[in-house]
Write a structure and sequence with these properties.
Elements lengths: L1 H13 L18 H8 L4 E6 L6 H14 L4 E5 H4 L11 H20 L3 E5 L5 H13 L4 E7 L2 H7 L4 H6 L21 E4 L5 H14 L4 H8 L1
Parallel strand pairs: 1-3, 1-4, 2-3, 4-5
Length: 227
């Protein structure tokens, strides 16, 4: 219970308008995180993909999710666009709304990881402070957080432009667009850096899986099926 009290306190400090936590009570499970992971025979953690629009975050996350599932591991992908169709459909793209967007998804990813599921999040998440908040939440909950920076030069991202968003941003049709009219703050301490303009999807998945195996995050099933 102490872990979750810390998590609630962090959320309250991030947004002082939150309901006072003295008026709510955390109902602890009789199943510990360690017991849950042992029963599911896998570890829960979050893979946080960050990078410019059109960097390849979602493409890589989709391929990695499929690979993990084929290994027999429970994994679930949380995509930046998809989340805005439901949970975050009330948010825009101002700096404040972007911060709330990331705060919410960090909390959701933490819940998935605490249930011993591998959470894959693919969000531009342009601000270091927001990504730091996501990391801090996981650290407080003793949940591994792996930041994956999908790096691509802005020129390459614009040349790809699969959704036509860069063209609209350059034409002034989209405001606060990352890389054009809003900043992207590159990670300074990402666990994994992917140069998507130089590395194919299959090789990228292999690189990430090797990192996870090296950190003993995939367990025996992952090692057995990749041997």
């Amino acid at each position: 219970m102490a872990t979750w009290v810390r998590l609630l306190s962090l959320s309250s400090l991030k947004d002082p308008t939150n309901i006072c936590i003295s008026n709510i009570t955390w109902h602890a499970s009789t199943v510990t995180h360690a017991e849950r992971c042992a029963l599911r025979n896998q570890k829960g953690f979050t893979l946080w993909f960050t990078g410019l629009s059109a960097s390849g975050k979602s493409t890589i996350a989709i391929a990695l999710e499929q690979h993990l599932l084929h290994l027999g591991l429970a994994a679930y992908r949380l995509d930046g666009d998809n989340i805005r169709f439901g949970l975050n459909k009330d948010l825009g793209f101002s700096e404040k709304d972007r911060g709330e967007n990331i705060r919410r998804i960090a909390e959701v990813a933490l819940l998935f990881a605490d249930s011993c599921t591998i959470a894959l999040t693919s969000f531009i998440s342009p601000y270091r402070s927001d990504r730091a908040t996501a990391r801090t939440l996981h650290i407080a909950g003793s949940i591994p957080f792996i930041e994956i920076y999908v790096h691509v030069p802005i020129e390459v991202a614009e040349s790809r432009d699969p959704k036509g968003l860069y063209a609209k941003a350059r034409a002034g049709e989209i405001q606060d667009f990352t890389g054009v009219s809003a900043p992207y703050e590159e990670p300074e301490d990402a666990e994994i850096v992917i140069k998507s303009g130089e590395t194919g999807v299959e090789e990228t998945v292999r690189q990430i899986v090797e990192y996870l195996e090296d950190k003993d995050l995939l367990g025996s099933r992952g090692k057995a099926k990749t041997a």
